[in-house]
Amino acid sequence: MNYRADRMDCIDASGIRKVFALAAKLEDPINLSIGQPDFDVDDAVKEEAIARIREGRNSYTQTWGIEELRTECSAYYERRFGTPLDNVMVTSGVSGGFYLALMATLNPGDEVLFGDPYFVMYPHITRLLGGVAVPIDTYPSFKLTAKAIEAAITPRSKILIINSPSNPTGVTLDAAELDAIAAVAKRHGLLIISDEIYEQFSYDAAPLSMAGRYADTIVLNGFSKIAAMTGWRVGYAAGPDEIIQNMNTLQQYTFVCAPSFAQYGAVAALNLDLGPTIAAYKKKRQMIFEGLKEHFNPTQPGGAFYIFPNAPGGDGEAFVKEAIENNVLVIPGNVFSDKNTHFRLSFAADDAVLEQGIEALNAIAMNYAAAK
User: Fold this and answer.
1) What is the pLDDT of residue 34?
2) Which domain, by its residues, includes 335?
3) Are residues 310 and 240 both part of a single domain?
4) Does the global pTM surpass 0.90?
5) Nearest to 247 by CA among 98, 40, 85, 38
6) Are 141 and 67 found together in one domain?
């Protein structure tokens, strides 16, 4: 008897997790693969969560999440972007919020548009739910433009995903570019899902949001990156009332609620001063860009903590295999793209590890050049 559901044919094991499995087999690798901050959760956040555990706040919360966090998420956006969030619900991470958003809005055959390169969940969850994934080629600038979006729209287009700053490229969109995209979405009646998990990590300009630019937008954000709370699984979503209500209904039958103690800690996380952290990551960004630009011709990331360099020889998988054989863990670009010409590197690592990685990767690139 075959008990496997047909929908499993729509997805495969994450290429990132495959590299993580390889990492476990290597002895002290130079690990530049993981999209996780190299700093720990702030003590104030830990202490808030511990205090709530000791108070006995260990039961289910309302499916929406605790009122304190919902209110603070809205206030956080008002402080940062001048627009409060409406209809906030707490989710089990941004990934949980993304899944609920598509579950609540996507019908079989509906098209979901997003830039290529893309975060790995976008095409896989779209296909899992019966939708049609429409990656839009953004090479070589990695900028998703209003013009490219308009050219990809068909009568079945329904949802447009924006991710700025981007995983895997670190590229950011400016205010004019976001406004132009919002205008296209409005003209064609598209729902925007704005994945803003990296909004704090903006190095060359003030952080921006889609919030307040277009009414039919679901904003997704969370605490895994800004507060290193990757294992706490807390995020939040906000947007049109009917959609958020439907997402909340779905959450009742799936995630139920985000972890209670983590929600209380997240309230404290929204009031942290991340200035020194962002300054440190800007330094890491510059270190990795300057260190790789001679041999890899990378696009300088404006945010997040990734860079997406060209693979010497033009084959991302082959280059990553060579890198892993030299004890350097990076991710092949085709995990995030329909192309196989690049690789993703995370600079969320200690500066000494970055220096080792730069030296090792340049040595591999020089071997490629010598072999020509």
Assistant:
1) 86
2) 6-41+274-367
3) no
4) yes
5) 98
6) yes
